[in-house]
């Protein structure tokens, strides 16, 4: 792929030069004082993005899947019951992980395209008089369907049930791109990765853990060493790491935080909304439909788009790749063949976003989709140009 | 400017990562054997791009302007007469340089938007029975107006006059993007730079010199040291450089040649034509007009586009920069305020080209240009998608 | 730390520019065909370094510790017995990991500075008539003491006991620097990382797994998802990855293999021996003593060196860092305060190695060690210069 | 050459990662407001290094040789007389340039190894009652012999003769490494380059011009366009450049200035003295002799060292390159074969300097030089360790 064509997958994102430069650092000794000295400020910065005052911030050299494993293995024991809804590929995978770790997983099956069923959660929790359910697990942004769930509603449901279960949230593809309120929503464990809103290379998962969840580790019996919160907290506290740290990613995260704070988190969120809304206008102009069932569920980091009946979304993404050297997200799981995805998170601008819309239009036209060339672009242009200025003013 | 927005100025170009990587090299000793060893193959590669068998290839750490100076100061003496036509900013500047170096400059004034007047050159040369005219100077691609001149026609005119003048060609913004035929056109000195078709950083001019022109240096009396062909040829011949060479650019040039040859020069030219033609279709769809007077003059590396009456092209490029963080070429000289330019040379693709078209459309709409959003994009899309495949197949 | 001072810790290593350039790549879609297409050759190359014909090669975005966890969790069940000797920090940590995963760990306590006790292993295995012991775990190169163990001897011991236990080897700090013979030694699981002999950034563990060990995963009951061999093999087989892959490291590994094969593995090993031997000559000239008990145990990737009685090795490494801006390995575990370490693995040359020796000499002199300035350097110089040529001839 | 072995030529220097990162920037539009906005602060910073309040700072995309040409062609006319002493390769080349530009060059021949003859200059100027001599040209640091001349003494001589000639100084290999006092010494034109004390890639010459010298350009008749002060000052004043600027180097210079000011210029000079003095102690320990005739002439950026009688310095540098993959400076001009050079300017530390000394010792021993291995290293170590701390404290 030509090295200046942007990618439009929902992460890993296009990496800004500024972050590539920082990550391209020569090896430095992770046992030197300089390493330990950077940690407190780094974690403080991450806390700001999670919107938490005193959650512990824990990093592992792993992907987001590792974060899921860390979340459950540090807080739960084999046989523990967790409650989770399946409404996309990533909730599905987390369910699978829990089952393979010997948890008793109560699954609420939902339509793909819907979000976390706060009411059903509440109902189930109310029925759980014995507090067998130890944790509620929610995927904040379902990358497969482009659905953002209402975590605040989940919390209100839990509170209405007066249930002590922990609330664990996968915010891999939402954090640092859409608002997150760890403290306000009463989240106990939140999991994200380096390669999404932080715009870094893949390879580090970042977990925020409430004091309540930290307490659970004292009784949690699932085995863990690589993903041990205890080891990591002890080592970080002494200015170290329990094994070789991914220092390039840690220095990258430090710079990523600087970029986010320079732009301003509110502006970052506004930029993501604006770019996403332009994409949605284009989808509408094409006469296509989003997988997300309703507007309140629209994700600002990825749009999953149904192809018209009789078309194969895999043929579309493959053709875009072959003919135009550009990557869009394929349809995952139930959406395989039925939807393609446009990632719009991380380091993107009006300019780059429009290149993606213009190119997928060509690809659709090539495959005889009933769309008009330029129509989606024009809809996005109209939205972008009438909303330009404010949010761009502070873009890096 | 956001570091992934492409630029659409007619050079320096967007630099591919592959070339940035090579240029980002640690200092190596230019007096070591390794340096000298790379030169012959490097010059052979450059000769292929100039399309010459045995012209001398000479590089200087300088911009293209330095190449102009090298061309005249190594081959001419104060008071010598040169013939040149003024039809844009860069021919204008070369004229100025010649005058300041004490040459007698015969200028044929042409409309900006026209090309090299082969007939008028021939006429003037026929009248020059005493062969006072020592050189004819031609700007192959007038970057200010987006005009490519017919150098072959100039040569035929010179031949018809049976005139021994040297033919010097500024191909700064054409070489490695549009066909060039040094030997076929009987060029004596051709000048280009690192930052255009070679897609490198600015800082090296590259000059091809015929044996005939080399002979002239024996009698040429203009002073020269930094730009001395003699010094450079002698030093290069011994595996060295007469002063500190810009080794990052020389290794960059080596890799750039590899990229060009991997894609194939014919494919490189076809890609430039294709991208340029898409831009021209967009211009047409907007109802705007190119500065280039006729289709045979259209440049495949830059399009200069008149803004409608009553509009100021500087306001347009400034607005595009302020509102969308993107650079287009401003109108230069006579075109200042009257035209803007879209550079389409170097490392560009359908994907990136469309982002430029979509963005300038927004900027025009913002300033109440009578254009329809998406119209230019659609025209370009239609052209690109019906011509995709062949040329993209071999893109890097 | 000044960015051109080399580091002398036993990994992560100094990263060659050539590998930094490759790792500094823009994000590419890991679901595109290009990703899957690179895997077979990549794994073939890794197999060559492990010296195996048909072991499965499995990578995880994790550190070497993650590799230990993957090794045991994919092949063993809670309560299974493993046999391991403790003779340094890294064997100690692997023991700890096994215990925390509910294994029954039989530990042979050895002196730090000794190597794997092949005879004691054999004796214990012979006594295990019921074949309760499922695996023997060995640290090939004990980074804390600079001891390389004889894995071939361990295998011979196991064979003499005719015992079916798996043989698992931690070769994190030995692979690609010292000879390794996966097939010849009958290794079942071998674990290494990206940041040592492969000279890459930290963040990927690389595991080789025999067919016999792969069989064990069918019955192994330890929970695993992130580190699942099954998931990884299935995904890789289909040209994918079970979650987001660390593509920068994977492309880096591809290039690292090229570098290793260009130099030739035998030359790589010879270079490590030669640099290490120079360090040992220096140690001898200083009148100091290695932690490794005998010459057959000397590691070619790291030397752990006792400080004289009455001195504190931590003060030495700290002073070297403060006064000369250079990192040496601190003493770990039992060696803390008693020994410092000089890492000599990865991308090092005579030139850089001598800078480390000269600097630690200054640091020792500053702290009134009874050593003569220049003495260690001279001993190393004498060795290097009389052995130069052959091995350097093919250095990258 | 292995990409982490430092080079020990007297420039171009080892480039710090920090500066490589900045220079590795994507193309940005040099006609955008951002470019012009950076210039005033950039030039102010450069003025600080030259130690001048109001000299004009002028840059060209060229090497230092281009700076020499700019200096004379903007201030002098054909036939003008200049006074210059020849005491090394670089004064020799400047003489040659002046002669080729039609100047009347009065040459004072001095021994190579001596410095600028302030007394002889004064004498000659006193005799020049008609003020025919328009300029005195001095090489501050003669890179070929490792000699730093006393520019203050030259100025005092000129003042004693009450002569109005301009004072032009080549400080290519001294500026930003040794103290320079443009205003205090009454310098009129000073010339340096990007690739020495500024630690950048080769490709930009930087010239400081006094108001007096600027006046001269009104009458100076030597032709100039590429190197025109007028064009550059006018363009820079309007926030532009007369042709395509080397923006990577200009942003690099901006960062280089930051680095220099963070360390503090006095500390930069002290560091260069200290590293150089260590080299001189080593030379003394080897029983060798510097080309510089006396201690007051010792350069802190390069040491030229005579090889013993009967030895060939070219064989030494070639052997060091072949056997140890490391570059030292060859002997130039009169010193060819008789001396080798150790560059010690720019981004170097105790650690890297010692690697150079240790390696050249090996190379000398290999060729049977009568030196003791480790002796030079020990002498340098002794000096470095007793002077460490203060100067290192602020090293980047």
UniProtKB/TrEMBL annotation, chains A, B, C, D:
Any Pfam family hit: Aminotran_5
Gene encoding it? sgaA2
Give the binding site residues for substrate: 341
Q: Which residues carry this modification: N6-(pyridoxal phosphate)lysine?
A: 196
Might you give the EC number(s) for this enzyme?
Answer: 2.6.1.45
Its needed co-factors are:
pyridoxal 5'-phosphate
Write the protein's name.
Serine--glyoxylate transaminase
What keywords were assigned to this record? Aminotransferase, Pyridoxal phosphate, Transferase
Gene Ontology MF annotations: alanine-glyoxylate transaminase activity; L-serine-glyoxylate transaminase activity; L-serine-pyruvate transaminase activity
- Tell me the Gene Ontology biological-process terms attached to this UniProt entry: glycine biosynthetic process, by transamination of glyoxylate
Per the record, the similarity remark reads:
Belongs to the class-V pyridoxal-phosphate-dependent aminotransferase family.
* Stretches assigned to the Aminotransferase class V domain: 44-291
* InterPro entries linked to this entry: Aminotrans_V_dom, AspGlyoxATase, PyrdxlP-dep_Trfase, PyrdxlP-dep_Trfase_major, PyrdxlP-dep_Trfase_small, SP_NH2Trfase/AEP_transaminase
